Amino acid sequence: MFGISELAILLIVVIVVLGAKKLPELARSAGQATRILKSEARAMRADGSSGAEGTAPRIVRAAPGDVVETRPSPGPNGGAGAR
Questions:
Q1: Long-range contacts of 59-68 (CB under 8 A, 24+ apart)
Q2: Where do the record's region annotations for Disordered lie (predicted)?
Q3: pLDDT for 6-42, tens place per residue?
Q4: Does any domain span residue 26?
């Protein structure tokens, strides 16, 4: 694996490439992704399911101040257009 010196050099390269202004945003989105992954794994263990179809989708609430992108729902016939 990596030693302390390699990790320090990698961190310096990341700071130079991304810039100090982007690091808090990157850390915030990584933390949010980790929280979502942990909650989904915990829910799957509690349900005893392996992602079987027929289960309702879980709703993940955004924290105050998070930017949330939305998309329209597929509609009653699963997104298929009227023919």
A1: 60/36, 63/32, 66/32
A2: 41-83
A3: 989 988 888 888 787 787 888 899 899 999 999 999 9
A4: yes
Boundaries of domain holding 12: 4-47
Is residue 82 classed as helix, strand or coil in its secondary structure?
coil
Check whether 59 has a pLDDT greater than 90: no
Say which residue the tokens 């850390």 belong to.
27
- Residue 56 within any structural domain of the chain: no
Q: Is residue 75 part of a domain?
A: no
The separation between CA 59 and the C-alpha centre of its own chain, rounded to angstroms, equals 13
d(CA 2, CA 50): 34
Neighbours of 28 (CB within 10 A): 13
Residue 24 covered by a domain: yes
